[in-house]
Structure formats: C-alpha cells, structure tokens
Structure to design on (184 residues):
C-alpha cells in the first residue's frame, strides 16, 4: 500500500468513524482536541518568541526531512473537530510530505506532536531556563492529552496515521480511530 493510498484510506475511514461517534463521546473528543489546540498555540508562542520561524526558514527545515509518520489520528481529529480544511500531502517531494512550497502545510496549532515539541540546537540556544521549563511542561501536557484520546479509543496513535491505516488494511484493527475494542 503506497503512502497516498494509506493516507486516503485513513482519512476516509476516520472521517466516517468520527461522524458516527455517539454524542457523549464526540463531546469528550472535541473537548480534548480543543485543549490540544490551545496548548499547541502556547508552544508556538514560545517558538515565535525565540525567532523560530526565521531560524527554520534559514535552515530550510532540516528536521522536517523525515516527517512522513508524524501526522497522527489525534492531529486529524483537530481538523475534523474544527472543520478546518485538510491539506493534501506531497508524498513524492523527497522530504516531509507536509512541506509545501511555502513551508509546512499546517498551521502551527495543527502540527503533529513531534513537530511542535522538537527543539533543534539553534532554537534551544535562545531559550532561557524559564522558557525551557515552560516548554517542557507544555510538551508534557500535550503528551497527556494525546494519551487521553488513545484511552478513549483503546488505540495507539503515536505511530502515525499511515501505520494506523496499514493496520486497518491488514485486518489488525477494526478502524482507524478504533482498535480491537470498537465503540462500546
């Protein structure tokens, strides 16, 4: 299964599953996803305060070279909950498929956990102890929120949506959101 096929399958199946969530679960998921988006905005504010955008522009995304598996079901849920239009990845660009001509195709608060919590040496050099501590606390908060979503669906999302799609296609899970337990 190609990356493009895995992506298409994952998006279609997860979107259907999301629309079929019972009201109480949909409300829980939306609440957690909104918390995630708020924390990611706070992480991005720290990054912006360190001139991170300019640092990334100058290095041209060295850390983005292998981001193929970073986008997770949790990240997709951000788009589904908010109704924000999903981008089309470029799996043939030889770099991270989420890089477009102008940089990352995702707004910072929609980017994957690995992307928003990674701090390269150049950005780290500008951090003082307060910024470093705040960044670490926000990263830990994000991790807990991601785990809460995994618990709701009895599924592991940290391996990326492409891997969730392959597990589904191979019959090792009953869906993209759901693992073996279903939506009991």
């Amino acid at each position: 299964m190609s990356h493009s096929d895995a992506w298409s399958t994952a998006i279609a199946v997860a979107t259907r599953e999301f629309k079929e969530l019972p009201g109480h679960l949909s409300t829980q998921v939306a609440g957690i996803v909104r918390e995630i988006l708020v924390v990611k905005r706070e992480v991005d504010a720290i990054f912006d305060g360190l001139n991170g955008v300019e640092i990334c522009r100058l290095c041209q995304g060295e850390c983005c070279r292998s981001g193929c598996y970073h986008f997770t079901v949790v990240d997709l849920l951000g788009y589904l909950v908010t109704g924000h239009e999903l981008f089309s990845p470029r799996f043939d660009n030889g770099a991270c498929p989420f890089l477009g001509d102008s940089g990352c195709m995702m707004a910072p608060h929609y980017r994957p956990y690995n992307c928003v919590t990674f701090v390269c040496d150049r950005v780290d050099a500008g951090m003082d102890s307060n910024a470093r501590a705040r960044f670490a606390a926000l990263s830990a908060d994000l991790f807990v929120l991601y785990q809460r979503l995994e618990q709701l669906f009895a599924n592991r999302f940290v391996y990326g949506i492409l891997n969730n799609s392959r597990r589904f296609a191979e019959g090792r899970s009953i869906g993209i959101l759901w693992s073996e337990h279903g939506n009991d």
